[in-house]
Specification:
The complex is a heterodimer of chains A (about 200) and B (about 100). Chain A has about 200 residues and is an all-alpha fold. Chain A has one domain. In chain A, about 85% of the residues lie in helices and about 0% in strands. The longest helix of chain A has about 40 residues. Chain B is about 20% helix and about 50% strand. In chain B, strands 2-3-1-4 form a four-stranded antiparallel sheet. Classes of the chains: A mainly alpha (about 200), B alpha+beta (about 100). Chains A and B meet through α1, α3 and α4 of A and loops of B.
Chain lengths: ~200, ~100
């Protein structure tokens, strides 16, 4: 089977299983999780007195990888249970075994596909937020500028997620972006209040 | 019963009662059958009944040489089951 045929098959599986609807929801949710998590990590390291960009990027990547593993494995467990339940119910309605049908193959593929999206989403938002610090490591920006810039990028990425949500819901772009950015700002304030006495 | 020599009977038209899940939809399923069956030239599919998990459909299949067993196999692949053959037209080709 050629690569083109394989891709065509996977597109068909995604269509049959309606995986894109679920994947879209998980992408936004987990990207948001990644952004809020990295905000917490960044504020934690700043208040903890760590200013070395290599160390902070290392902590960020470790957090991202942990969220990737959690996202992927959690999805596999949850989605497998749901899909198996759906197949069993359909088999009862159809009075036939659906093993080896395109329906079961699509269900199995969708579990991996959604797991992959769930894994990549938080890691992507964390890596995007760390760009200023990566530039500082490369000597392109100063560390004093990179640290606050990282927080700004994380909050701005939440705004981009808000715009993505507005495309799905049809609601006002700016309002949705500001809503999510407000959550980012609130997180920054709350974490700062909690950490300041320490 | 007398038999004409060299006559080959071929299915030209058949009506099938099929039960299938909602996905794939009738457009995708019908397209797949037309593309994968060389003896089939046209298929008309309509929905007869829908319930929560499944739908009953009627497929009118036209062609030069419709292979019902092959249709059954492809339907099975797509999680559909052939409930009954409701009508058939068979013509003889190449009889002397």
């Amino acid at each position: 089977m050629s690569l083109r045929d394989l891709l065509k098959k996977y597109v068909e599986y995604i269509r049959i299983s309606e995986a894109n609807k679920i994947a879209r929801r998980y992408f936004i949710m987990n990207s948001f999780d990644g952004s809020v998590t990295i905000l917490g990590v960044l504020l934690g390291v700043i208040f903890g007195g760590i200013t070395e960009p290599t160390q902070i990027v290392g902590i960020g990547i470790a957090t991202g990888v942990a969220l990737m593993v959690s996202g992927f494995s959690g999805t596999i467990i949850a989605e497998e249970a749901e899909r198996n339940k759906d197949i069993k119910e359909l088999e009862e309605s159809m009075l036939m075994d659906l093993k080896d049908t395109v329906y079961t193959k699509a269900a199995r593929f969708s579990i991996i596909y959604i797991g992959f999206i769930n894994a990549i989403a938080p890691f992507l938002s964390i890596m995007i937020s760390l760009i200023p610090l990566i530039l500082a490591i490369a000597g392109l920006v100063s560390v004093d500028l990179a640290l606050p810039a990282t927080i700004v990028v994380a909050i701005s990425y939440m705004g981009i997620l808000g715009i993505l949500i507005s495309k799905i819901t049809g609601r006002n772009k700016i309002r949705e972006a500001l809503k999510l950015m407000a959550i980012g700002i609130a997180t920054t304030i709350i974490v700062s209040i909690v950490l300041k006495p320490l | 019963m007398a038999q004409r020599p060299n006559g080959v009977a071929k299915v030209k038209y058949v009506v099938l009662d099929v039960l299938k899940p909602h996905k794939p939809n009738i457009v995708d399923l019908t397209r797949e059958l037309v593309l994968r069956l060389p003896g089939v030239t046209k298929i008309s599919t309509s929905i007869v009944e829908i319930d929560q998990d499944t739908e009953s459909i009627k497929m009118e299949i036209y062609g030069n040489d419709v292979k019902v067993e092959e249709i059954k196999r492809i339907l099975r692949e797509y999680g559909a089951s052939l409930h009954s053959i409701d009508a058939v037209t068979i013509e003889e080709d190449g009889a002397e």
